[in-house]
From TrEMBL:
Residues spanning the membrane: none
Stated name of the protein: Glucokinase
BP GO terms, sorted: glycolytic process
Coiled-coil spans in chain: none
Broad EC category: transferase
Gene assigned in the entry: glk
Organism: Jannaschia seosinensis
Amino acid sequence: MADDDKQEPTFLVADVGGTNTRVAMSAGRTILRDTIRRYANREHADLAPLLRTYVEEQGGSAPLGACVAVAGPVADGRAELTNLDWSIDSARLAQATGARDCAILNDLQAQGHALDHLDPNAIRPVIEAQPADPARDVGARLVIGVGTGFNAAPVHQFPDGRFVPPCEAGHASLPIRTEAELRLCSFVSTAHGFPAVEDVLSGRGLERVYRWLSSEAGSDEAHLAAEIMDRVESDPRAEAAIRQFIRILGTVTGNLALIHLPLGGVFLVGGVARAMGRHLGNMGFVEAFRDKGRFAGFMNNFPVSLVEDDYAALTGCAAHLYERRIL
C-alpha cells in the first residue's frame, strides 16, 4: 500500500449497506478489483473491527486515505446507519485503518461522486430526453438508490469541485395517487404512523406490497423480495406487486426530478433498482414518471438511466478522496 510521487495514492474504500459491506483498495480513482471483499454485517459487531480485519488481510500496511459510504445520515464526521445498529466517526475510521485522510459519506453521496468515473457500458438508458440546447448548462444530476432502503442525492459540478449534499429522501411521506395506493398505505402503516417512501420502495417494501395484494385476495401468502422477482412470470400476484412497485417508483422519481431539476440526468442505483431494470420499460415506470399534469411535457427534459455497476459507491469514495487531495 506504499505511496510515492510516481504512483497514484492508495486508498481504502468501503460501501456499508444494510446487509453487506464491500471493501476495496484503489489506486487513485481506480478500484483494484482483485482487492474487493464482501462481508456479511451480521457476522461483525461493528464496522471498525471489520475494517481492521480487512487491513490485516491486505498485509497490514496503512493506506494514505480511507472513505466509507454508509446507508444513513452523516453529520460532523459521524454516521449512524439507518438499518443497522452501527456507528462510525472519522477518528475511529483513522484508528481502524491507519489512514491519515479520512472521510465518511452517505451512500448516495458516494454514488454521486462516482458519476463520470464509471464504465459507460454500465449505464443503461431507461428514458431518453429531448435534445438539450447546446448553449444551456445541463445543470444538476440526481442519483436515486433503491435497495435495502431508499434515498436520493443531487449532484452539482462547480469549477472548484463536485458538491453532493446528503438527503434522507426515503423518510419522506409516500405519495398517494389512487384509491388502491391509499389501501396499500393503510396496510403498510407502521407504529410511526403514515408510511415513508422506503417502507414501500425497498426490498422489504416489495414484500409488503405482495402481502397487501394477498390480503386483498383474502390470503396470507408471503414471499421474500428475491422470490417475488423470480416468480414474476409464473405468479400473477408477483407481477402485480412488481407493477405496483414500479409505478410508485416512477411517481417518486418524477417528484424528485421536479424538485431538483436534474437536466444532466437521473441515475437509478442499488440492488433492487437493478433487479427491476428489465421491467421499467413495460410496467408503468415511464408513464408514472411523466404523469405530472400540465408539466407532463416538461418531464421530457430529464433523461433517466440505470447504473448496473455494483461497485459504483466504492468508485465514488475513491473519487471523493482523490478530489480532496488535488484541490
